[in-house]
## 1
Amino acid sequence: MTRPAALLMTCAVLCAALAMGLRQSFGLFLAPMTAAHAWSASGFAFAIALQVLLNGVSQPICGQIADRIGGRRVIMGGASLYALGILGMALSEGLGLFTFFAGLVMGVAVSAAGMPVIIASLTRLLPEEQRGRAVGLGTAGSSFGQFLVVPLAQLGILQWGWQGALMLMAGAALLMIPLALPLADAPAPPKPGVVEESAGAALKRALGTPTFWYLFFGFFVCGVHVSFLSVHLPGFVASCHLPAAVGAGAIALIGLFNVVGSLGAGELSSRWKRRELLVLIYASRGVLMAGFMLVEKTALTVLGFSAIMGLLWLSTVPPTVALVARNFGTRWLATIFGLVFLGHQVGGFTGAFLGGLIFDRTGSYDLMWSVSIAAAAFAALVHLPVRDGMTPAPAPATKAA
């Protein structure tokens, strides 16, 4: 019996909300943890950047496992690793041990219980006409988690210290286990008389297609922007001599407004050319960041920037997933989108680590803002030649003898 679509979407949205909200809170711990342990900003940023990079490297592997056995068990395992990784971060006394838990353990956890596996599972369980809306809802759920969890994490730091807040977050990660129960999307057996395309053949077909690489490098830029802002925006706010609450509010506001942006992008992905939508999103990011650099940094301008950036934050996900499904089919969607997502996370590593390195070397984030603006222009241009047909590309299959 088919599970009700409402139940599937609700559980997926809540699971994605927890996963994204927890990981987007880590930037709040940079200042208190580096002060408590006398670590450098670049040392802390490297651990988070390593998490982002390993997330990208392990994402296709987790996607491949989810494509073979279904997303439910993969997400549950990832939730357990989430709790272990955050608890290890709380108890780490040295930067090396912190890097192990925050970088290595959390990198795999975020892949297994992250948005790509959740969305791929949801996409397979729903009819095509509901997929764009479902991906938009899943992405919006992630952003709502960011809006809800980040202020709670900041409150936890104020009430119980950074260590107590991390321990509470580790317990919250375990809530993803029951939420994953309905997401049992084990692939259906192939139709009689048809030899199903193997994972290797699907990957070879994707890697040999220019559209795959356009999406890969465009998502790289998205990762640069997301990680730079999520890790360093609170620090940038502090460098402007504004209260810490403004930094936490900025991250939360990005999450809140991305609920609207993601839902809108999900609807537009079903009604409009996804290629043009991505070009518009990336170009708008560049214009917004350039304008932000020209105005005085006050609480009002920071929060206004965050609200508009929220509309553009993860709104890249629904059109990107739709283009992957259109061009390469849904049988190996978690695997192929996982590879595209690798580009996002390599960009995320770059944004998180480069931001910390530039700040340590120059005492300012100005150069990193310039890099981010140039990257936005590149991403807008690289999506122009993306193939965006109105029907899915058929997966090769041969009749059995």
## 2
Amino acid sequence: MQFLMRCATLAISIQILSHSVCAAPPDSSNDPKAIDPYMGEYDGKLTLDGKEEDGIAQVIAEGDQKYRVAIMREFWKTAKDAEQFRVELSGEIDSEGNVPLAGNGWNGKLVKDKGIRIQADSDNTFFGRPSNRKSPTLGQQPPAGAIVLLPYQAGVKPALDEWTNPSWKPLESGAVEVGKGNIFTKRELGSIKLHVEFRCPYEPTKRGQGRGNSGVYLQKRFEVQVLESFGLKSQSNDCGSIYKVANTRVNASLPPLHWQTYDIDFTAARISPEGQVLRKPSMTVRHNGVLIHENQELPGATTAAAASGYVLRDALMLQDHGNKVEYRNIWVVPQAD
């Protein structure tokens, strides 16, 4: 994407009819800001009908110099909630390097100047500053008793000794990039605590399932979807969902190029010696530290699983879906079945 100007800071101003609003630039990791200085999350104050409260803006890249902005009170909840508020605007970079925005009766501007101040002339406004949100478990070290499946050390190519598919690409950064074909652990695992770090690529011209797609499959059957779903009203096939089984409680996604985490408590099925299923498997999932599933029972294998039925133990699988998703720092702590 070509940009007319590069700068470390932004501001967003938004107004409804003649109501103004404003905010500033995104966070960076392996410098997303250098790739796209507009995209990202902004924390700020939302004033509606004279009442001021906390709000956020999420700026989503949607093509060459085009953006969509969602203004909300908090992360989008997938359950119906009468208190939810969301306004979406869109725009593209102008000749001055700003992004005029309009939508749903609101209008404003994305401006690359942190000193900008917009005077609100009505009760409906938003003013924000760049968010530096990161997962509280990002970089978490494996505890005692953990099995390290993918070691992480910055600047050191990781070994794939625990995995079956050598086509995946270890990177100098310490991560591994998705290669041709799914990858499986050599170990078979039962009930576990799992920590996974992943990063979706920047693909602003792609949409839906074509944008940063991969997946973490417990026992190569039950997928927690990996997808670039930042800013979306997520569905049961978006990031964090248990694919087509359960949507997330909230969309806790970070923008593309930012490292994200899954912390998963997986309880394997309990099966009698005669093969009777006494307890179906279940999982609790935290995405970037946010609880998105709690004790969610798994009715069966999800779409594109590598196996079916219930078992006591099987491999962990990471999915190749044709996108250059990266993984690092993967470890498990075995739990009693």
